[in-house]
Amino acid sequence: MSKPGLPQGTRDFGPETVRKRNFIFDTIRSEFEIYGYEPLETPAMENLDTLLGKYGEEGDKLIFKILNNGLDHDSKKESARAAFENILKGKNDKAITERGLRYDLTIPFARYVATHQHEINFPFRRYQVQPVWRADRPQKGRYREFYQCDADVVGSHSLVNEVELIQIYLTVFEKLGMDVEVRINHRKILAGLAESCGGAGYTNLITTAIDKLDKIGMEKVKDELTEKKLTPLQMEIIEKYLHIEGNNEAKIQQLSALLPNQLTQSGIRDLQYILKFFGSENPKADFKYLPGSEKVILDFSLARGLNYYTGIIFEVRAKGVNIGSIGGGGRYDDLTGLFGVPGIPGVGISFGVDRIYDVMEELKLFPETVQRSTQVLFFHLGEEAAKKSFELMQSLRKEGMRCELFHEQAKLDKQFKYAEKKNIPTVVIIGADELKSGMAKLKNLATGIQSEIKFENLNQGLTLNA
Amino acid sequence: MSKPGLPQGTRDFGPETVRKRNFIFDTIRSEFEIYGYEPLETPAMENLDTLLGKYGEEGDKLIFKILNNGLDHDSKKESARAAFENILKGKNDKAITERGLRYDLTIPFARYVATHQHEINFPFRRYQVQPVWRADRPQKGRYREFYQCDADVVGSHSLVNEVELIQIYLTVFEKLGMDVEVRINHRKILAGLAESCGGAGYTNLITTAIDKLDKIGMEKVKDELTEKKLTPLQMEIIEKYLHIEGNNEAKIQQLSALLPNQLTQSGIRDLQYILKFFGSENPKADFKYLPGSEKVILDFSLARGLNYYTGIIFEVRAKGVNIGSIGGGGRYDDLTGLFGVPGIPGVGISFGVDRIYDVMEELKLFPETVQRSTQVLFFHLGEEAAKKSFELMQSLRKEGMRCELFHEQAKLDKQFKYAEKKNIPTVVIIGADELKSGMAKLKNLATGIQSEIKFENLNQGLTLNA
Question: Is A148 helix (H, G, I), strand (E, B) or coil?
């Protein structure tokens, strides 16, 4: 039989990769916890009722649906055959498939909040780190199974939440050793721009066009908008808007002059409130500002696609690598309205773990210790000596040292090779001679330095070096 | 719209449950690591080629299959319709479904080893903690999505692996505070029994009958075997076999006398080798025995169903609760033969995390700290004071303390209630008066004790108490 492959767009994660990914996940998780966010886990499958219609027509097509079991029961065949015709027409039919794999973590979270609204202690801060599945065409950096890593707080209008989420971004990336910028904008500013350029009906149109700026460039954005019959005057406003530059303060002044309407001004007030926490301009202030003000950048060209955001929006970019956004999020008015529970606002962020992994790999940012599993290998040089090794090893393991005894008697060479391949830094050699003398040989594989140590001092010697 | 439910047999895990489950997972994972086992993760979906035919006919029916996307493309409709007729006949057809959700962690592991055999550093010790999915009829304690938690070492015949896996069981359950027994038997002993009772052809028959002993009792096992035309003499041997009792040594003596055949004797030798490591009978021995010998119990009625085991088999039971097995495993000759790579032996164990959770919940074994997220809540008593609170909180967070500032100005009552509901042990109260005096009020919600502390000493005061 030929060796079986993996489904397209899915991956195995071997030991080294899992350890590196866990380093990222653990760093993020513990920062979420420090800010009072609590873990939630939802099932991989949701009822299709929950999923369909939430991600647009394109999204619906990308949901993996699970075939109902037992379609070959005699009692079900006839209706299944008829129902399958619906599937062939592109319509869903519960007689064929009732469940799908989750497409993101937001809809399952909304479902959870809607269902448990009466038990939840609001504001509810939750984080969730789980895989999602999309039947997208696989390509470099795009997978059919990938992890999302989200934190949201719901049931609170306070902008301090936004401040804290920005701070989480800054701290996590500092801990990962990555140099980043958090770009922020406000949906009300985009709406205010539309108001000055044709009215509220133009918000989606203009937002979509601006969202493509990075990809297609200013000229094509202008072409697209002209096609949609924006007047030259309106086009001029948009162009001026997109050309706003300088430091945050200068940007706000220009924007304020360009779009004096109430919507925009209200967006500006929110941004100012948040930026004040990061201000470093006035060292005499009675309030100790948060570090990293130079990393929080107003970017009025930030749009975050056409999703459900209504307030502040965020995006994180790594400096010095051209990889796009490695995190994003924003504020929304109404998380659970789709599930019949209106009026629950919130704000959330997410981390793009696959891209963060790629950046860290490219810049060699993973600490050496992450790539190490077993700390000490005891060589196997015959039953008698191995028994002693086992005994000594057991005492090290009790203190939390990660150890192994080579599984069988073998040439030194073979055992050294095993240690090297597994990146084990230290080997302990106990053969017949050592058994007699009561002294173990220790070898550090990185330096090549060999030493001797009394059996009874092994614990101390090794734990000190670990 | 009505609130959407969850698919049958699946569960949400809220914050408290996730934390308790992670306590179990983390305890197991770190013990796996101490013994040199490395993490592996495989995708939720596998090609159906990989899964089908591996779990028997019943198993095949319980695999969740994923409907191919794009069946409504005009080019595919005709062939899909024809292919669906196969599904209705109970035959799989790739035109309808190519992928399924993994049913266990062993087959994905075997696929991984078969695919990567030339890169793997044998013996390969891997652990894997991931969900699996089965379209079983849901009932109390049986779910359609549940986590498996496995460790296997492949590429080694050494029985020291078995010793270490037993030791992992004992240490993990000791750390979890659970009183357990590890029962062990050997497949060669069951085969030896069959040899004495009708020949090798009877091995499956006798194993299956013995496996049901717990469920249906001795009389029904006898009925079943009599039905299969076992002679009274053969029945007598089986009955004697199942009545073997006493301590491990006594059991071995009785078994050895009852079944002197080579197969059984070879099984006995393996068991004796392993038991020697746990022997505590001779305190003068030159070898320091492993603790817990009284928890390692020979149980010749242990069968572990009809799976692929060929050597030692294990099962763990919790004492004092009637919940069945909470872990099991064994040695197999050939992990990857099904994938065209013969001759890779191994041994593995798994933990039944759902049942372990239930036992720990029933016996109240989860430590209090596991149930706590945020450690300190700062009250919000107006913008000015809250600014100071935020500043002080930020400095605590820097030291890894899990803190929150209540999200808006509110009555004390409301803020206390939030803290209580979230099980936050300490609150810090800073209002206008405290702002003036530079002293924060601290309240321990468990004891009700209130104290005052200078702003600048808050860090020290709180981290000491944490």
Answer: strand
Any chain A CB within 8 A of the CB of B43? Answer: yes
Question: B118 CB near a chain A CB, below 8 Å?
Answer: no
Q: What is the model's pLDDT at position A65?
A: 98
pLDDT band at B213 (very low <50, low <70, confident <90, very high): confident
Same domain, A342 and A398: no
Same domain, yes or no, for B334 and B417? no
Q: Which of B344, B362, B380 is the last residue of a domain?
A: B362
Which tens digits make up the pLDDT trace of B99-119?
Answer: 999 999 999 999 999 999 999
Tens of pLDDT, residue by residue over A109-139, are 999 999 999 999 999 999 999 999 999 998 8
Q: Minimal Cα–Cα distance from B220 to chain A, Å?
A: 32
Q: What is the ipTM of this complex?
A: 0.95
Q: Bigger pLDDT: B293 or B7?
A: B7
**B204 occurs within a structural domain:** yes
Question: CB under 8 Å to B156, separation ≥6 — which residues?
Answer: A407, A408, B122, B123, B345, B346, B347
Helices marked H in B243-382 — which ranges? 248-258, 262-278, 353-362
* DSSP secondary structure of B319-346: TTS---EEEEEEEES-SSGGGT-----E
Residue B342 has φ and ψ, to the nearest 5°, of: -80, 165
How many angstroms separate the CA atoms of A123 and A154, rounded? Answer: 6
Judgement on whether residues A106 and A198 belong to the same structural domain of the protein = yes
Q: What is the pTM of this model?
A: 0.95
Tell which residue, A190, A183, A404, has the closest CA to residue A295: A183
A198 in any annotated domain? yes
B57 occurs within a structural domain: no
C-alpha pair distances (Å), B450 with each of B414, B459, B462: 18, 17, 13
Q: How far apart are the first and last CA of chain A?
A: 46
Q: Is the pLDDT of residue B285 over 70?
A: no
Given a cut of 90, whether residue A214 has pLDDT beyond it is no
Element (H, E) at B383: helix B383-398
Residues on chain B touching A88 (C-beta within 8 angstroms): 71-72, 77, 80-81
- Residue A439 sits in a domain whose CATH number is 3.40.50.800
- Contact between A435 and A450 under an 8 Å Cβ cutoff? The reply is no
Q: Is A293 found in the same domain as A234?
A: yes
Q: Which residues of A touch B374 (CB under 8 A)?
A: 36
Closest residue, chain A, to B389 (C-alpha): A287
Give SS3 for A37: coil
**Distance in Å from the first CA to the final CA of chain B:** 45
B39 and B128 belong to one structural domain: yes
Q: What is the pLDDT of residues B29-83, one digit of tens each?
A: 999 999 999 999 999 999 999 999 999 888 999 999 999 999 999 888 889 999 9
Q: Which domain holds residue B415?
A: 372-465
Query: In angstroms, rounded to a whole number, what is the distance separating the alpha carbons of residues A162 and A267?
Result: 13
Nearest to A397, CA basis, from A428, A370, A418: A428
What's the Cα-to-Cα distance from B193 to each of A186, A236, B211, B258, B440, rounded to whole Å? Answer: 76, 91, 14, 9, 75
Last-in-domain residue among B329, B362, B395 = B362
CATH number at residue B124: 3.30.930.10
The angle at the Cα of B94, spanning B91 to B97, to the nearest 5 degrees, equals 85
**Entry field: residues in chain A:** 466
Mutation pick from A64, A137, A276, A290 vs chain B, by most beta carbons of B within 10 Å, is A64
Q: What span, in angstroms and rounded, lies between the C-alpha atoms of B417 and A122?
A: 11
> What residues pair up with B314 in beta bridges, in sequence order?
B184, B329
**Number of structural domains in chain A:** 2
Residue A2 lies in a domain: no
Cβ contacts (< 8 Å) between A65 and chain B: which residues? 66-67, 69
- Check if the beta carbon of residue A259 is closer than 8 Å to that of residue A238: no
Q: Give B433→chain A minimum CA distance, Å.
A: 17
